[in-house]
Amino acid sequence: MSDNNNTFDYIVIGGGTSGSILTNRLSANGSTVCLLEAGPKDTNPYIHIPAGYIKNIFSKKLTWNFFSEPSPHTNLRSFSLPQGRVLGGSSSINGLNYVRGQQYDYDNWEKLGNIGWGYKDVLPYFMKSENRISSKMSDSRGSKGELPITDLDLIHPLCEAFLKGTDLLGIPRNEDYNSGNQYGSGYFQRAIFNGLRYSSSKAFLKPIQNKKNVEIKVNAQVTSIILKNNKAIGINYIYKNSDDLKVLKANKEIILCAGAINTPKILQLSGIGPASLLSEKGIEVINDLKGVGNNLRDHYGVRMVSYLQNIKTFNSIAQGPPLLYEIFKWVIKRPSVLSVSPSLVHVFTKSSSKLRIPDLEYVMSPASFKEGTVGLLDKVSGMTLGVWQTRPKSNGYVKINSKNIHEPPIINPNYLSDPYDVDVLLKSIKIGRNLLLTSPLQPYLNGLANPSHNLEKDDELLSWARSEGITVYHMIGTAKMGSKSDKLAVVNNELKVQGIESLRVADSSIMPAMPSGNTNAPTMMIAEKASDMILSE
Question: Tens of pLDDT along 41-82?
Fold first, then answer.
């Protein structure tokens, strides 16, 4: 397709998890599609090596290096909130685990006024993307999609001991937490195949990148959506290192897939958002939508560590000379530390016996990490158990700081602002301690841990959690889907922006409530369902 062409049927803003899928699906019938990604192509080799996430999650070249405002309920700490800025988006830098959530999550979306988003409605779209590679399949799993979902091929004895301990605590083994019932423990399913990461870009964009009706623009940052008579007709964008404004026009629709931080930023810069905020920043108010940038939610987690003896963990085999052997195994396609996700084992359980479904997600790894880092191995041998409340009530906001596209927005997830979240977090720490002290683990424990065993009182444990807790990088909700009666709804159940023609949002920002788990798989489902809705019109 000629670079001089500036009119397309569809313009997709953001080449990440959802944008890659939409570009694939919308171009399948011959429609012309232009995809704009603010970051580069996904050629960095560390993207494709699963263990490379350690290098990439804070990369200045491959991520948006966002930071939150100091958080009042977490000791006034500011949190690093990286988002993928590369083809594949966050699916190119994330932790690779594939988690759909629970049936309840989507039935709840429907109860909130989003007709057509119940579990029975969204299940076919989860299945559509999947190429589930397993000897144990069920009717709820897909096997014909582009995205390979595989089982862990490196079984560590510490993981086995941990799972024997969960058995003793009455938590059942669950061989497929993505089949509808999430409760239980087992090994994570991952977007890894033949030792390589499968991002949304690799699975959905690469096969179509040379089609004549598809144009992919990288290092192209959208500055605003062009609106005429409350209709989206095009976009303004700039190339990296240039302020020369360029224009593209859309014959049919513009689909915004820039993620939970950049999607509300682009909407606000385009005059769609809370009138008071836009007026304050000198932006003409086209559509006063109070929900744009509000309802930001994220998972807030803690990482509990037990230090070990009498066993080799990733701390020893993934550093120094032993790492050379792991590299060799990876090259010849043998199970290797380089080809696993950061977390190997899951436990989905309940903070209270009164609950009907799980509200906690634990992630276990046979490694300990340097304090305050993500993925950087400690010199001391240990095991890490992370945990977060899957459906937090605390919520925050994303607000533009100025009219300057290069200035990052003001972000505050407002972690632990709801007392219910604090209560569940405390319970999760106590349950986690029990998970780390079972009899099968006793031969390996050396008595040292973080939080220290000396911390026993509730206020001591909460103080530790407020000072050492971390984001889980699962931001959602800033352009939430809802009915007209919902004052914070930005899009309707067809993902159309309220009051604006020919503009949809199809990414994690439309989620009206947090799904029970990691957010990448639900974002893929949203893209698949959005594609069908668009093409059916």
Answer: 999 999 999 988 888 888 889 999 999 999 899 999 999 999
Alpha carbon distance 303, 322 (integer Å)? 26
| Cα first-last separation, the chain | 25
Regarding beta strands 130-132 and 147-151, do their DSSP bridges make them parallel or antiparallel, or are they unpaired?
parallel
d(CA 401, CA 397): 12
Amino acid (1-letter code) at residue 185: S
**368 phi and psi angles, rounded to 5 deg:** -120, 150
Question: How far is the C-alpha of 132 from the C-alpha of 140, rounded, in Å?
Answer: 10
Could you say which of 73, 156, 299, 474 is catalytic?
A: 474
Catalytic (active site) residue 474? yes
Question: Which residue in 103, 66, 100, 61 sits closest to 82, CA to CA?
Answer: 66
Same domain as 56, residue 38: no
Angle, in degrees to the nearest 10, between helices 419-435 and 157-168: 110
Residues 57 and 173 in one domain: yes
Domain-terminating residue out of 453, 471, 489: 471
Which DSSP letter does residue 509 get?
Answer: G
Extract the tokens encoding 15: 């080449």
Show the tokens assigned to 395. 């919520």
